[in-house]
Amino acid sequence: MHWDLSDFAVAAVLLASTFVLYRMLAMFIVRPRYRAVLVAVLAAALCLAWAELAVGVFGTPFSGT
User: Fold this and answer.
1) What is the model's pLDDT at position 59?
2) What is Dmax (Cα atoms) for the chain?
């Protein structure tokens, strides 16, 4: 696999935006169970976005195929 600088930049943006979104939403969520659900939803969204950008699982134009 040949990664260039833009691939690393997109990965950094994905990870950073997921972390920032968690921090913003976690301020409003008090119950630990709801925070766990938030983590699960954000992790699933991150994994789906990562898989789509990496191999084009869903066939959107973002995958580059």
Assistant:
1) 79
2) 43
Query: Is the distance from CB of 62 to CB of 52 less than 8 angstroms?
Result: yes
Per-residue pLDDT of the chain (65 residues; tens, 9 = 90+): 678 898 899 999 999 999 999 999 999 999 999 999 999 999 999 999 998 888 888 877 776 65
The two three-digit tokens of residue 64, written as one number: 């580059």
DSSP letter at 47 equals H
Closest to 52 (Cα-Cα) out of 42, 41, 60, 44: 60
Which pair of structure tokens corresponds to residue 15?
Answer: 């990870």
The residue assigned the tokens 């191999």 is: 55
Task: Dig out the tokens for 48 from the structure.
Answer: 């789906």
3-state secondary structure of 64: coil
